[in-house]
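Model it.
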Amino acid sequence: MVKSTLLVMLLAALLPQTGIKPRTSPSATANAYDRGKDIFVSRCAKCHDQDANKKLPDGTTLLLRLAKNKDPEARLGTRIKNVQERHEVMLYVQTLIAQLRPSQEAQKRP
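Modeled.
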């Protein structure tokens, strides 16, 4: 949650320089994140666990698949048809992907 808040603050700091105003407040983003987590936990966690790290039959995880995908939100669209819900779930999943990357980097180091 802290990382998503920092991301929103960073984007908000950059937007005035480009002349674009943010459309949502940080609290609205936090609410969307919470809704996304609730959707993921209620619909997806049965098969993928709450952190999307449950090993699938092929040995991968949903989180690894999404992290490697160029457009993970579009990939979520194969299961989550509602655009708003898909975006909210993606806000939640992005924080999981962000946590995954440092651990992958650490595993690569000798």
